Amino acid sequence: MERIFFAVAIVLVLSVVFTGCIGKNQSAGDGLPKEEMKATDYFPVSKNLYWEYEGIGNEFAGGRVDTEFIEGNRVQLAQNNGGTVVAKVFEVSDEGVKLVNSIEESYYRINYLAKEPAQERYYLKSPLKEKASWQDGDTTWTIESLEEKVRVPAGEFTCIKVVGKSGDSVVERYFAKGVGLVKQKFVFNDNVVEENLSKFGDAEKDNCLPEKELAIYYPSKNVDKLLEDRVLEKFNTGETLAEKITELLKDEKYRVLSKNTRLLDMKREEGVLRLNFSKELITEMNAGSGYEALLIDSIVNTYGKNFGVEGVILNVEGKGYESGHFVFGKDEVLKVNR
Asked: Considering only CA atoms, which of 242, 203, 204, 208 is closest in space to residue 111?
């Protein structure tokens, strides 16, 4: 627990901003008058983009960032530093780039883009001009340079340098056009921690999409027990863990869900996962009591295991589960036992 707490703390202090990718050695203005520089140029948003950072000064510095979801002017990025995963939701516009939500221990590819903003912290704010500044709580951020030369393992870049000062701590961030954050440096007294870009690109083209091993449970052919299968799944931007599991359970090998069954919504909280399915879960099941019991166990254990919960609530069209063989209340928790 202490290790996870410290990992989260490092991520929050060294919150990274990442975006698109084009060639290296880009100039900050790329030939444009500086008054035409836009924050969106330094935070381009596209599907399947990823960034890898080398850390210096702390075991939880650096790591990998992936683009999980994009809708309108919001993007959700997942930052994995080896100790924890933090999902960060940003709003990106000509006004600037601001962090509106940060969800710790986000291991389950849940889309938080529609979540009500809990904060407003600018990483870049217009106008992009030298000496321009803004306040974030006790921290004063200032654009110190528009053409700062920076060399990192990924190459050399011309960057906007943004510096945040609060008491004895200083944070430096360096943003390159079309790339995003290429370097971040945190200084507190004699402690120095850095994150330096080592690799970035399109994860699909580079054949390195984020992966997750899933546990799938399904009835045996003799309908006398549950079988377990381990499947390694890749995720594109926009794909949730819940949707991936739902489609897998429809596979001919497992046949736990019918082709027309839809997962209408899902909510994970306090060790319990609430699943709300369409009516086809029951109307297209066509199973005797023994087989139905195994199908229910398959659903509870597959979703429950992969979402790290102890119990699952099974709803159908917003109501409790009720078939000819089984009845579960709207808030009744079914125990995950695998």
From this structure: 242
309 three-state secondary structure: coil
The 10 Å Cβ neighbour count of residue 217 is 23
User: What number of residues does the chain have?
Assistant: 338
Burial readout 307-333 (b: 16 or more C-beta within 10 A, e: otherwise): bebebbbbbbeeeebebeeeebeeeeb
The pLDDT of residue 270 is 87
Tell me how many degrees the CA angle 224-241-6 measures, rounded to the nearest 5. Answer: 115
Helix (H) or strand (E) holding 8: helix 2-13
State the average pLDDT over residues 72-91: 97
Cα 21 off chain centre by: 19
Distance linking the first and last C-alpha atoms of the chain: 23
pLDDT of residue 35: 52
Torsion of CA 37, 43, 44, 48, to 10 degrees: 170
Kindly report the pTM of this predicted structure.
0.88
Q: With CA atoms as reference, report the closest residue to 192 among 174, 168, 156, 157.
A: 168
**What's residue 27's pLDDT?**
43
DSSP 34: G
Bridge partners, 207 (sequence order)? none
- Reported as a single tens digit per residue, the pLDDT across 304-332 is 999 999 999 999 999 999 998 999 999 99
Domains of the chain: 2-202 (2.50.20), 211-335 (no CATH)
